[in-house]
Amino acid sequence: MAVVLVTGGTRGVGAGIARVFLRDGADVVVCGRHAPECGITDGAREARYEPLDVRDARAGEELCARLAREHGSLDVLVNNAGGTPRRTVAEGEVADHARVVELNLLAPLFMARAAHRVMRGQPGGGSVLMIGSVSGTRPSPGTAAYGAAKAGLASLAGSLAAEWAPDGVRVNTLVLGMVGTERLREHFGGGEGKGDGEAGRDEETRSGGETRRTDLAALARTVHAGRLAEPEEVGEACLFLASPRARYVTGASLAVHGGGERLALHEATARPEPP
């Protein structure tokens, strides 16, 4: 039975990933700074929660080593923890932007290194999955530090894959587009999350005394697939990359973005549909 650790697995994409691995029969551990409001479950099976600030390298090493001792192995690490508020580079303090890079780039490096220390001595090696973003592949105004960190994460994953291939530790990246989670609604709507089932609902937020509406259905239309991803769909992609079916796949980037974002140029030059 595989042992899987999902960072930031208490909500949103991380919880969806955890549920898919639970469904597949794995022993799943989710970690984060705050316990989930309700257990992460799939049927009668529930993920175990461990408190952890992934930016604390020593604490991450201790957790990975302890899980390997208690379960006999640590087979999969999903570096999912991350995120950012919307803030231009000119706004906020320098430390605010530094924290975004620390969470989205340095923390995955720390956790991957901690997992490698365990995995390299196992007969079957292990699998490290980095949860990347399309923000790291194109300009990201309003989230520049996040985009830069995700671009760095892709480079980091490729380097680790090359360094650790002789140890049997595979490192791959999933490049995500928008996923229908409460965090997406908080990011674009500015309000509290309404639950993962309401991705098409309008949100309201107040900025500078004015009320602004963000139509999340309009966001979905910016994706070629015409909808946002579901967290479990990300989990299914993780399950494949962590499985023996992908045993020769390392250093790869798998796009999980519904065909990508529609380009304004394509929209502006599109031929009108015939009547």
TrEMBL record:
SUPFAM superfamilies: NAD(P)-binding Rossmann-fold domains. Residues 186-212 are annotated as: Disordered. PANTHER family: 3-OXOACYL-(ACYL-CARRIER-PROTEIN) REDUCTASE. SMART domains: PKS_KR. Pfam families: adh_short, adh_short_C2. This is SDR family oxidoreductase. Transmembrane segments: none annotated. InterPro entries: KR_dom, NAD(P)-bd_dom_sf, Sc_DH/Rdtase_CS, SDR, SDR_fam. Residues 2-178 form the Ketoreductase domain. Belongs to the short-chain dehydrogenases/reductases (SDR) family.
